[in-house]
Amino acid sequence: MTVLRVAAEWVVEPSERIIFLGAVDDGRRLIPGEWMGYTVEDCNDEGPQKYPCVLVKDRDGARFDFCGWRTWCPDEPALPYNTNVFDKTLVAGEFFTVIDDEGEELTYRITSVSPAG
């Protein structure tokens, strides 16, 4: 099994990023399951802040479960945000979307893919 580290930036605000690990098949598509990651938000004078997330594909669909996404507080319960990243080939330059809880489609561009470990 090949595990990749993927970094992606929000096309509207490139300083906001998602980084995650995931096992992939021979076509470099994520294998269903739960994969760990984190978001990076650089929105204040304190510098970049990191918050955990879990990338999930199960019988309920594909989603990122973001901790602190709305308030940027790590104590906030995880919120599920649908994504199509499991349908994408994980290569630099590929785009995927995350749908927030208000239905807004956030587009991310993969900036790097490297072997984990």
Please tell me about this protein's structure.
The chain has one domain (2-69, 80-115). The chain is built from no helices and 8 strands. The chain has strands spanning 2-10, 17-24, 34-41, 49-58, 61-66, 79-83, 95-99, 105-115. An 8-stranded antiparallel barrel has the order 1-2-3-4-5-6-7-8. The chain is globular and about 40 Å long.
Give the topology, please:
Elements (H helix, E strand, L loop, with lengths): L1 E9 L6 E8 L9 E8 L7 E10 L2 E6 L12 E5 L11 E5 L5 E11 L2
Antiparallel strand pairs: 1-2, 1-8, 2-3, 3-4, 4-5, 5-6, 6-7, 7-8
Tally of strands: 8
| Mean pLDDT metric | 89
Radius of gyration: 13 Å
Total DSSP helices: 0
Question: What's this model, at a glance?
Answer:
The chain has strands at residues 2-10, 17-24, 34-41, 49-58, 61-66, 79-83, 95-99, 105-115.
Keywords:
single chain; 117 residues; mainly beta; 8-stranded antiparallel beta barrel; 53% strand; globular
